[in-house]
Amino acid sequence: MLQSDNNVQGKKENIIPYIPDGDFYFTKGVEAFEKNKFDVAIKWLRKAIEAVPDNPLYQCQMSIVYTEIGAYHAANQLLNEVLQATAEQYTDCYYLLANNYAHLGLLSDAKKYAEMYLNKQEDGDFREDAEHLLDLMHSDKEEGNEWEFDEEDELIIYQDMVFHHLENKEWEKALGLLDEMMMLFPDLQLVRHDYTYALFFSGSPDEAIKMELDLLEEQPGSLHSHTNLALFYYETGRKAEYERHIKGLLNVYPIHEQQKLRIAVTLAATGKYEQAYMRFGKLAKQQVKNHLAYYKWYSISAYKLGRPSKALSLWEEGCRKHPVLADEEGPWKTS
């Protein structure tokens, strides 16, 4: 027997819609993590954090996934945010930070955070792990050479944090750290070039160009000045100035992989896709795979040159290694 419209409408009104909550997304994320489906885990955990932004458990679990894929700087940023938000009450973060710093080779910081965890959590879940970590570092330590690299470690930490902010286009955060670095390490030229780069994209292009021109005057052969100025002039539509700087880069073939990558990215970002693709193909992938820009601009170059399968493969691999890349439009959507 067919139901009347009134009966159907009445039943519809009695249906209670199911709206997933943070715990639902979190559970799905943990299930994916346990199956080593890290990219899926990150997507679910992001939904959990969006649903309940102030739940430290969700953010700590996300940091663990980041650690598992080698994104230690992203993991540490989350952990520090949790500590700040919870007035340092979520003490598991100290062990997780110690573990990440150990992976980064920053042993003095790993030791510091492991000891902080043990001091705050005498019977914590990670007690044995923290003690084991300290034992490993103690056994690797040479006699008479105890933690002599604090200044070098500090520089590496700053560089790692700046690298993370620049990759994620967090310009103001990068500028704040770079300001500190210029005071602490005044002879480190790369810091000044990174500062002009962040300054340009934070909305001060004229000031950035002036500063970079001053740096170029100090060091006329600076690769970093030429790559920055080529990009700055391209972005501001000053074609003649752009051509002058990019022309010089086309004839430069550095020895170091990071410099090679910088040129390849600059070529791709300014529309020189064929030359960029050639440069990307000659890079030692193992040395540049931690750079989101490698996957992004190599993929875009491949797509622009009519190699969609290569572009898709690079983009998917890049999203697995750098989950934040998934938030950007793929190369097939670039103008």
From TrEMBL:
InterPro entries: CellSynth/LPSAsmb/PSIAsmb, TPR-like_helical_dom_sf, TPR_rpt. TPR repeats lie at residues 22-55. The keyword Repeat applies. It comes from the Bacteria. Transmembrane segments: none annotated. Gene3D superfamilies: Tetratricopeptide repeat domain. Keywords: Repeat, TPR repeat. The keyword Ribonucleoprotein does not apply. This is Tetratricopeptide repeat protein. The lineage of its organism: Bacteria, Bacillati, Bacillota, Bacilli, Bacillales.
